Amino acid sequence: HMLSKVGMWDFDIFLFDRLTNGNSLVTLLCHLFNVHGLIHHFQLDMVTLHRFLVMVQEDYHSQNPYHNAVHAADVTQAMHCYLREPKLANFLTPSDIMLGLLAAAAHDVDHPGVNQPFLIKTKHHLASLYQNVSVLENHHWRSTIGMLRESRLLAHLPKEVTQDIEQQLGSLILATDINRQNEFLIRLKSHLDNQDLRLEDAQDRHFMLQIALKCADICNPCRLWDLSKQWSERVCEEFYRQGDLEQKFELEISPLCNQQKDTIPSIQIGFMTYIVEPLFERWAQFTGDTPLSENMLNHLRRNKAKWRSLLHKQHSSSRNNDHSGQVTGSQEQTLNEEETP
């Protein structure tokens, strides 16, 4: 049974999604709510929980190559792994765990498959609604609140409690805005350097939940190569689709969205170097050198080396016969043959 391995880093979410007939998010969350004792603790109704989770899952766009319900399930599975890290687990309340899992599951709900600059320059109604600030993340949060209220999942809890849950969900989901990456990295670095994190305090626990969600959201490069590579191809395909739309509307093509110029290896190496590595090195500093943190950093370094090798193969092939810079099947085959177990 795959669910018995849900706490393992090499969990294959793509296989799980196939085995559950595209119901990975609902199945995973029902299981995790049980595992963590949340059904009992919050006296949740199983049918209502299931109905809420189906609403969330169906609000993701299955047409998106990347920002779909499988990404949400993947982020939730990573979050579950992070919540079990002793440095964090020893302090977490049932409320923290429920918030962490719910935020992970819903953090990209109703994602349109294009980024914030695209929504702003096409004058999308969401951009004006949220005044060009964390447009997508605000939408993911407010959509989640709408579904929570409609499902009445938490309707039996005191009003103050549900209000607090809604606010904290917002604060967690808004932390996934990549434009705020430096703000969070600087705060985390300062806490680690000063050794002043007090996880007995709700505020510090909430901050580390924000960091855990940020890690879970961008953990693809820290997964096994076969899984990591699929995510990379999917996210770049979504970028390229946006570039095609921009071309069609005669708009300037956004960075990373030009299939002719921005190749998958170059996009991935940049992402790993400037976004992923700095965050995960700090996360490892927080957790201490746990098997999970070591494992993630090892995958990250190995995967980066693979993309580098693909980039070099690409460059040499485009020099030889001036190709468009896309990786060929034979190059991919060579890389897989070189792969060490």
Automatic annotation (TrEMBL):
<dbReference type="GO" id="GO:0004115">
    <property type="term" value="F:3',5'-cyclic-AMP phosphodiesterase activity"/>
</dbReference>
<feature type="binding site">
    <location>
        <position position="108"/>
    </location>
    <ligand>
        <name>Zn(2+) 2</name>
    </ligand>
</feature>
<feature type="binding site">
    <location>
        <position position="217"/>
    </location>
    <ligand>
        <name>Zn(2+) 1</name>
    </ligand>
</feature>
<comment type="similarity">
    <text>Belongs to the cyclic nucleotide phosphodiesterase family. PDE7 subfamily.</text>
</comment>
<feature type="domain" description="PDEase">
    <location>
        <begin position="1"/>
        <end position="314"/>
    </location>
</feature>
<feature type="binding site">
    <location>
        <begin position="67"/>
        <end position="71"/>
    </location>
    <ligand>
        <name>AMP</name>
    </ligand>
</feature>
<dbReference type="Pfam" id="PF00233">
    <property type="entry name" value="PDEase_I"/>
</dbReference>
<keyword id="KW-0114">cAMP</keyword>
<dbReference type="InterPro" id="IPR036971">
    <property type="entry name" value="PDEase_catalytic_dom_sf"/>
</dbReference>
<feature type="binding site">
    <location>
        <position position="268"/>
    </location>
    <ligand>
        <name>AMP</name>
    </ligand>
</feature>
<feature type="binding site">
    <location>
        <position position="108"/>
    </location>
    <ligand>
        <name>Zn(2+) 1</name>
    </ligand>
</feature>
<feature type="binding site">
    <location>
        <position position="107"/>
    </location>
    <ligand>
        <name>Zn(2+) 1</name>
    </ligand>
</feature>
<dbReference type="InterPro" id="IPR023174">
    <property type="entry name" value="PDEase_CS"/>
</dbReference>
<feature type="binding site">
    <location>
        <position position="71"/>
    </location>
    <ligand>
        <name>Zn(2+) 1</name>
    </ligand>
</feature>
<feature type="compositionally biased region" description="Polar residues">
    <location>
        <begin position="317"/>
        <end position="334"/>
    </location>
</feature>
<keyword id="KW-0479">Metal-binding</keyword>
<feature type="binding site">
    <location>
        <position position="108"/>
    </location>
    <ligand>
        <name>AMP</name>
    </ligand>
</feature>
<dbReference type="GO" id="GO:0046872">
    <property type="term" value="F:metal ion binding"/>
</dbReference>
<feature type="active site" description="Proton donor">
    <location>
        <position position="67"/>
    </location>
</feature>
<feature type="region of interest" description="Disordered">
    <location>
        <begin position="311"/>
        <end position="341"/>
    </location>
</feature>
<dbReference type="InterPro" id="IPR002073">
    <property type="entry name" value="PDEase_catalytic_dom"/>
</dbReference>
<dbReference type="InterPro" id="IPR023088">
    <property type="entry name" value="PDEase"/>
</dbReference>
<feature type="binding site">
    <location>
        <position position="217"/>
    </location>
    <ligand>
        <name>AMP</name>
    </ligand>
</feature>
<dbReference type="GO" id="GO:0007165">
    <property type="term" value="P:signal transduction"/>
</dbReference>
<dbReference type="InterPro" id="IPR003607">
    <property type="entry name" value="HD/PDEase_dom"/>
</dbReference>
<protein>
    <recommendedName>
        <fullName>3',5'-cyclic-AMP phosphodiesterase</fullName>
        <ecNumber>3.1.4.53</ecNumber>
    </recommendedName>
</protein>
<comment type="pathway">
    <text>Purine metabolism; 3',5'-cyclic AMP degradation; AMP from 3',5'-cyclic AMP: step 1/1.</text>
</comment>
<keyword id="KW-0378">Hydrolase</keyword>
